């Protein structure tokens, strides 16, 4: 049984709490939030773009802190789970590792590349187990499609497009997520999911060319990108400028040599496969979501003494690097390359 200290009890913190309530291998022994009201939560309801559930929560046996440094000093746990605003990730993660704890950090790893690299360096220095919430690498719809692509049954990918669209997030602490200097706006915070999946599937492109909707603070709330690869075409688009009645959706389309695969969370079934010359079929998907599988994988890796490597500090830093390059491309109206 691994004991977890959870820092940050907003939307994503409650999402992680809901997962730990399901995992037999872990228990939350301490929580921390600067907002005292958040420490007295009784329900998982959080108001984000994905349902956290509405179960009742009993935290009567859990130690509660407003100061994470005091929590780190007091100890009594094995893992620190960081669900704080992005701009706080680096300092908190580094202090947690220096204090001797393994760390799971929500995505994006950081909002600046230098902070992402600081974290990577500290992981290498301390040897602590560390992973990042790039949940699409664990989300059944995406993982089963990757499995199908990797099998080679339908030949190579010739074209792929990814998209996620959301209403404007209004549920964060002090509205930090809409401050581009703190979050990177949607071009980093939201779009990084698809960027990470593109890198997971295809590796770094030769270059990117992006356009975006630029807000008053100079950050980008909606971005579209073409990724230049030598042997396939890849595009993506993501943002949170949809009207409040739209909600949230993520989708993707993969065109292979012998099949087309459609992923769309607004439809049921979520994933359809259209083979060349054969009948279409729904791709069977395991139950559960990426949040569950990523935390289960991290806990299991610590218990076994070796992480799976599905997400690494370096892969998470690379995804930040790619998003920042796309933002650069969009703001300066130029192609950006030189990633390898």
Please tell me about this protein's structure:
The protein folds into 2 domains: 2-133 and 293-308, Rossmann fold; 136-287 and 319-337, 2-Layer Sandwich (Dihydrodipicolinate Reductase, domain 2). The protein is 32% helix and 26% strand. It has 10 helices and 15 strands. 42% of the residues are buried. Helix 3 runs parallel beside helix 4 (113-126) and helix 8 crosses helix 10 (313-332). A hairpin with a 4-residue loop joins strand 9 (220-228) and strand 10 (233-242). The protein has 340 residues and is of the alpha/beta class. A 9-stranded mixed β-sheet has the order 14-13-12-11-7-10-9-8-15.
How would the blueprint of this fold be written?
Blueprint: E1 2-7, H1 11-20, E2 26-32, E3 63-65, H2 68-74, E4 79-82, H3 89-98, E5 102-105, H4 113-126, E6 130-132, H5 140-151, E7 157-167, H6 180-183, H7 185-189, H8 192-202, E8 207-214, E9 220-228, E10 233-242, E11 248-256, E12 259-264, E13 271-275, E14 281-282, H9 290-304, H10 313-332, E15 336-337
Helix pairs in contact: 3-4, 4-10, 8-10
CATH class type of the largest domain: Alpha Beta
Percentage of residues in DSSP E strands? 25-35%
Overall geometry: globular
* Total number of domains: 2
* The CATH superfamily title of the largest domain: Dihydrodipicolinate Reductase, domain 2
Could you report the average pLDDT, rounded to the nearest whole number?
Answer: 95
Distance between the termini: 40 Å
Radius of gyration over all CA atoms, rounded: 20 Å
CATH topology of the largest domain: Dihydrodipicolinate Reductase, domain 2
Largest sheet: 9 strands, mixed
